[in-house]
Amino acid sequence: MTTPQEDLLPATRRALLHRIAVAQAEGRAPSLVAAVVRGGRTVWHGSRTSVDGHGPDENVQYRIGSITKTFTAVLVMRLRDEGLLDLGDPLEKHLPGTGAGEATIAALLSHTSGLAAESPAPWWERTPGSLRPELADVLGEQPFLHAAGRRFHYSNPGYTLLGALVEKLRGAPWEEVLRSEVLEPLDLRRTSERPQAPHAGGWAVHPWADVMLPEPSEDLVRMAPAGQLWSTTGDLARFAAFLVQGDDRVLSAESLLEMRTPAAPPESADVMTGYAYGLGLETRRSGERLLVGHTGSLPGFLASLTIGVEDDVAAVVLANCTSGPQVFTVGADLVRIVAEAEPRIPEPWRPLADVDPSVLEWAGQWYWGTHGFALRITADGLIALEPLSGNGRRSRFRANGDGTWTGLEGYYAGEVLRAVRSPDGVVNHLDIGSFVFTRQPYDESASVPGGVDPDGWRGIG
What we know:
By secondary structure, the protein is α+β, with helices and mostly antiparallel strands. The chain has helices at 10-26, 67-81, 105-110, 135-139, 156-170, 174-183, 224-227, 233-245, 253-260, 268-273, 327-341, 357-360; strands spanning 31-38, 41-49, 62-63, 203-205, 212-214, 230-231, 276-277, 282-286, 289-298, 301-308, 313-319, 364-368, 371-377, 383-387, 395-399, 405-407, 416-421, 427-432, 435-437.
């Protein structure tokens, strides 16, 4: 028997409303709007505003700043999946003459190219993009500040280059490619390069007085792939569901998992806070919860898209002020409120439809030296290796079709597991990247490198 998807409980809805009300009041935001997604659909929407009798709904556009980078990254991953490029390719191979061609596509996606964070003066977010008509104007005379691949250094020009790469390989403007390949298939009708009514105006709130100043809304032109888009909580809620589930018309769930996987070496401060960057997506730690998504800001606007993948809950938070509410913290709290008040109900356990007897023979306890591990065959057709107690190396493995298995994560990611059999056909040991796992600690009947002392185990006396 299954339980139908239901809307959130009244107490949960009130807790969500209370959280955004506090954020809008304490952050002094002209307006703040939010949505929560669970099970792939929007289950709550709320807003708070300083205008009496007016509350922005899920169709009011706000500028989303660097969440735009996630959209651009999806376009690049599509090119990769079609075989038009490899993430390890230098940019020069596909887009020659930029002056930054030594950077790989993966490094641009993960902000490890060594490029500067911003374009040369004047401040690009508050001046017309027509001042930077060419890539050379965005990059400047010395585009690199760091050695490539050595550190995470957020770069807006890097995503400008990725947008130009999309245009070169597709033979069409970035915004046209985005619309035809992502926005239209996902039914994101209220996401656009330029604002479309109804939309919020961007404001700066004075830090020491309750007064406001309108912010300019510039067309970023060349730098559009780094932060141009306008969107709504309704559209971003659908986009959040896509980022978890995938959509074969746009990008597979497997490629999206790759985007969510940390790819950039974090700074020391980031290690402490639990921040890392993948391929167009951020990962953050909030308490014991791992969250993925992206934040964004441009003068007059703040935005956050936050996904608790394990909880199957996502939150979108948008505000029309330059500074004030901590939108990521608000989004993380919305995810936490729902996840704790109404925990995800797991799918029913079901046994495997079929199992290979030769693989079933592997199930059970194994030892790497004296470290105990358990090997399990899971209902999704994978095998999982995990320590019997405490922390240790763990990974799932996927069958290769030739009797070997490849690790999917952690220390054993990409490493090959195979069973080594004795002449009589019995499994002697497991080999994982040359490490030997035996049924007993240093099993004398197994092929343990270096051999086993013939006198066996002993005490002190």
